[in-house]
Amino acid sequence: MPAPLLDIETHSEIPEHADCVVIGGGIVGVSAAYWLARAGQSVVLLEKGRIGAEQSSRNWGWCRQQNRDARELPLSTRSLNLWEEMSADIGADLGFRRCGLLYLSNDAAELDGWARWGRFARGEGVDTRMLSADEATERGSATGKGWQGGVWSPSDGVADPSRAAPLIATGIIQHGGTVVQGCAARGLETEGGAVSGVITERGTIRTRVAVMAGGAWAGSFMHRHGIGFPQASARSSILSVAPGATGIPDALHTAKVSATRRRDGAYTLAVSGLANLDPTPGAIAGARHFLPMFARRWRVLRPGGAQAWRAGFETRKAWAFDRETPMEHTRILDPRPSKALIELTLKRARAMLPGLAGLPVQAQWAGYIDSTPDGVPVIDADIGTPGLVLAAGLSGHGFGIGPGVGHLVADLVLGRTPITETRQYRLARFGKGQWGKVAEF
């Protein structure tokens, strides 16, 4: 079974005009469109497949400040409050809860790194608490092991990947916006170099503002319009086991395996960072940008296959706007999970958490995590084409900070004071000395 996803009804027709068109119905796209609609904009959200069907429903569901790179921390802190605000405004349960996140370790160097981060983060107002060996062992009693230490971040939490993006999309509609599924954006029309419309498979929407929030598809879309955006994707494989376990923390991370309690009492299981690299034209073309990241993370990356190449989401071919595009050829990125990584994850999880023994596998799936060379997203309205905003490259951190990214996009579009500093999210940083500054966490 694939990752579960709530199905929602949306609009079937596209309007002729809009204040803004948002391309991509993942957590970033729906959040951006939601905040724009809430501000009174006539906004259209276009999704080539189903809302939330790609990485936004295939992640762990963690909404964390803990161990965030300093460049993302303010955005993650804001996002925690925005999750609660959006839930209340929409009147729907997005699955967000501040259950706390528990990190356990027997590695002294890892614990020292967490402690250094904690000293910085507490100065930023984050509630993060280092655990002694006794405290970590008590909180991690479900493992049946002793631990040298750990971290407890009580104000962090999780949301429900199967429900969040679809329900936020209903919030767009509540505020007068238009959401269209099964409709790909093929490209942009421009006048005098500025955005004047978004070309879709169902016709053109006249607009002065377009937001590209297409996740793993963003790099090829930017390339088609002459804008360089270094992006590469890794294929992550995840599984869930059926409900029945008791006493396991709601959100637990160890170096061997991580576990997250789902809405139905099942547990999502994954190994942090462990993924397959499927070669693509885009990844090959931009390989030099990613050498520092590969040098840091090669131990958890494994060779992949031809799935991504066939899917076409990182193509460097220039498609025509009046014919079927790669986005229509592959409506939903639904790669096969790695059997070897699924088996390894399950083996580690059952060894680490005896309470999972005997529980059957409920589902298994894979997803493509799109990354920038430094592991920090691009959120930028000054990328060379007036009216075009880029919000992509969330680098595996996007679900938790999605509400904040969407709010920041709306701030940029509306000319409001942004909720956080934006310098660290500019696309131009990759040409100005940022090479090699890879996110620590």
Verbal overview:
There is one protein chain. The protein has 441 residues and is of the alpha/beta class. The chain has twelve helices and 21 strands. The strands form five sheets. It has an eight-stranded mixed beta sheet with strand order 5-6-4-14-15-16-13-19, with helices on both faces. A six-stranded mixed beta sheet has the order 8-2-1-12-21-20, with helices on one face. The chain has a three-stranded antiparallel beta sheet with strand order 9-10-11, with no helix packed on it. The protein is globular. It starts with 19 loop residues before the first strand and ends in a 27-residue tail after the last helix.
State the major sheet: 8 strands, mixed
Helical fraction equals 25-40%
Strand content: 15-25%
Radius of gyration: 21 Å
Morphology: globular
Task: Tell me the number of helical segments per DSSP (H or I, 4 or more residues long).
Answer: 12
Question: For the residues shown, what is the average pLDDT?
Answer: 95
Structural class: alpha/beta
Low-confidence stretches: none
Q: Termini distance?
A: 30 Å
**Strand segment count:** 21
Strand order of the largest sheet: 5-6-4-14-15-16-13-19
